[in-house]
Amino acid sequence: MTSAGRTSADQGLVAEHTVYACVMGSRAFGLATGTSDTDRRGVFLAPTPLFWRFEKPPTHVEGPLPEQFSWELERFCELALKANPNILECLHSPLVERITPVGEELLALRGAFLSRQAHASFTRYAMGQRRKLEADVRLHGAPRWKHAMHLLRLLISCRDLLRTGRLDIGMAPHRDRLLAVKRGERSWEEVDAWMVRLSGETEAALAGTPLPEEPDRAAVEDFLHRTRRASAL
Q1: Rounded to whole angstroms, what are the CA distances from 134 to 8, 129, 182, 201?
Q2: 3-state DSSP call for residue 84?
Q3: Which residue ranges make up each domain of the chain?
Q4: What is the Cα–Cα distance from 110 to 9, expressed in whole angstroms?
Q5: For a FRET experiment, which of 28, 34, 122, 135 has its CA 20 to 30 Å from that of 152?
Q6: What pLDDT digit, counting tens, does each position of 148-186 carry?
Q7: Which residues contact 211 (CB under 8 A, 6 or more apart)?
Q8: Which of 13, 216, 225, 15 is nearest to 102 (CA)?
Q9: Rounded to whole angstroms, how far apart are CA atoms 94 and 17?
Q10: Architecture of domain 3-112
Q11: Spatial CA neighbour of 37 closest among 69, 5, 14
Q12: How many CA atoms lie within 13 A of 175 on its CB side?
């Protein structure tokens, strides 16, 4: 199959077998403005017989819509069990565009993916983003303010997840302050101090978090097994 043919076939999996689709980015976080894109994310279930071939189904697919990205169900669950921030946030979007019974069961398992591993994964991602911002400051005198805003948002989500055991991606209480950062109306020193404070609060929250040490891998595996079996039959 040619590259173009493979792309078309892969996008067909998204069109025909999506079990869950949502809007992410600023619109889901409550930080959208008039110029915000519509970022779509989704999960598709590749029919089980496709795994019986030498050429396996894709683990992820871009498109067919602009700013759309989807994962095959197993890959999505694998990343969620590792507390990948982007994946976990998808499970908590308030803007659901499409959902099937399999998707509803996936959302019902949201709690099974949450564990103290989120602290390490969110922190690791945040540190990488912060190094990029610091490089921008050294080279250009200022960071990319939109990226700075989203890093602050991530740190807030991580802190509150560890405090409550629940992931809430809505930023309505912090909207005005975060958008001021995006517009470059705050100094880097002020933004940096906010990041440092949030990191400290996150570390403090870890000590008393209600989250379990590990995600409920057995529950997720049971879900995948039943879903694959039903697809095969």
Answers
A1: 40, 9, 16, 21
A2: coil
A3: 3-112, 117-207
A4: 30
A5: 34
A6: 999 999 999 999 999 999 999 999 999 999 999 999 999
A7: 114, 115, 116, 118, 161, 162, 165
A8: 225
A9: 21
A10: 2-Layer Sandwich (3.30)
A11: 69
A12: 12
